[in-house]
UniProtKB/TrEMBL annotation:
Chain segments annotated as transmembrane: none
SUPFAM superfamilies: UDP-Glycosyltransferase/glycogen phosphorylase (SSF53756)
Leading EC class: transferase
EC number: 2.4.-.-
Taxon lineage: Bacteria, Pseudomonadati, Pseudomonadota, Alphaproteobacteria, Rhodobacterales
Transferase listed as a keyword: yes
Protein name: Teichuronic acid biosynthesis glycosyltransferase TuaC
Coiled-coil boundaries: none
């Protein structure tokens, strides 16, 4: 009942789903040791994330020199497995995973190999037989290399869109073939894993949804009459489509409609300029990142969530809006149609500002009691299908099977492995 979790940067404000999953496993009796390459402490505003940061072992905090000093003696006791992992790292680096192909990719993967050696050493020290990585990018690479060096089991969860944007560059098929099992957070995500894996590996591909903690969402706040209020939540980055949303707000031309945009990122200055140029400064509010309580408060004051993304996995913000009893206007991409139906919101073509503007107008024309019924249906669906304790139990069953098949942690050896 012990395992390691590995993430590149953890925790992050946009990745509370990982924290919820870990906590659910711990409620079931699992002992989970958190590894991350980096901390992003200065960006954390939620007390639960800050507490999680203190519980996480950040490998690069010690610096590469000290990391190497700790890991290399362990590697020296396992020369054969270390050499196999090194060849694997250089092979992945040649494809460009995590960086440019060629020399740059290989150098980056030498660092991944060293990180994998340190993870393997710590897993042996802490008696952790299995490593689970979140995201199929560099964290899964490090987990794969650690498993090869240390004779450990490993698995990983893919979220999208990054893994599916460059599957060959991220050696996705190689990781699937070597992992005990691989997880997608939606049926759409599993279909993408099927595309990049051999048919023989398909039985090891599983769907485990991200989930919510239902007890954090009491009975929804009743929707108020009067001017409509939309909320959007996410990183202010290109893939989230927020510039398109501002364009759609201008096209919708609804003077009583207000939008609150929760999040932060590189696009904030450009968005602020776009909002001012469109004359929307009185109707659009940018809040920056808020803690979970702040997000729930804004959802409670809103009539619906809007998600204009160009690329997604299975959006947690949609689940949280549904749990709060709010319908959703969203791009019809990736796993989103697995959440949003005609009874719980509006799906629009991604990248189409006019279609998004029309969906916003349609939303604004719906009576409040109909919006409330849509929100009630959405809440019932998400509480049934995305309870984190249920989803974590599914994941735990795969961990048990993998650890049982591998026989647990191998004995440390003094000779070649």
């Amino acid at each position: 009942m012990k395992l390691a979790y590995l993430v590149n940067s953890y925790p992050l404000p946009s990745q509370t789903f990982i924290r919820r999953e870990i906590h659910a496993l711990e409620r079931m009796g699992w002992q989970v040791h958190r590894f991350a390459m980096r901390s992003d402490r200065e960006r954390l505003v939620d007390a639960a994330d800050i507490a999680e940061d203190t519980r996480t072992e950040h490998l690069l905090k010690q610096g590469l020199w000290r990391l190497a000093r700790n890991a290399l003696p362990f590697v020296a006791r396992r020369p054969r497995s270390a050499w196999r992992a090194l060849r694997l790292a250089l092979s992945c680096g040649a494809r460009g995973a995590g960086g440019a192909p060629g020399t740059g990719g290989r150098l980056r993967h030498l660092v991944y190999w060293l990180e994998g050696a340190e993870v393997a050493r710590r897993c042996h020290e802490l008696r952790l037989p299995h490593i689970h990585a979140h995201f199929g990018t560099n964290s899964a690479t490090v987990a794969m290399l650690a498993a090869e060096i240390g004779g450990l089991g490993f698995s990983f969860t893919t979220h999208g869109p990054e893994e599916f944007d460059a599957p060959r560059a991220h050696s996705l098929g190689e990781k699937i073939a070597r992992a005990d099992f691989s997880v997608a957070i939606s049926s759409f995500g599993r279909s993408q894993l099927c595309r990049w894996s051999g048919l023989a590996d398909w039985p090891s591909l599983h769907v485990v949804h991200c989930g919510i903690e239902p007890w954090r969402f009491p009975d929804p706040t009743p929707l108020r009459e009067g001017p409509r209020h939309l909320v959007a939540i996410g990183r202010l980055s290109e893939q989230k489509g927020f510039p398109l949303l501002i364009e759609a707000m201008a096209l919708a031309a609804l003077p009583d409609l207000h939008l609150t945009l929760i999040g932060d990122g590189d696009l904030r200055p450009a968005l602020e300029a776009q909002i001012a140029a469109a004359g929307l400064s009185e109707r659009v509010t940018l809040t920056g990142w808020l803690d979970e309580t702040g997000v729930r408060d804004h959802l409670a004051r809103a009539h619906a969530l809007v998600l204009p993304s160009f690329a997604e996995g299975l959006p947690m913000v949609v689940m949280e809006a549904f749990a709060a009893g709010r319908p959703v206007i969203a791009s019809a991409i990736a796993g989103v149609p697995e959440l949003v139906t005609s009874g719980t919101g509006w799906l629009v073509p991604a990248g189409d500002a006019r279609a998004l503007a029309q969906a916003i107008r349609n939303f604004a024309a719906v009576p409040v009691d109909v919006l409330a019924r849509m929100g009630h249906e959405a809440r019932a669906a998400v509480l049934e299908q995305h309870d984190i304790d249920i989803e974590a139990a599914r994941l735990a069953s795969h961990f048990r099977a993998a650890i049982g098949l591998s026989g647990g942690l191998p004995d440390e050896v003094s000779g070649p492995a």
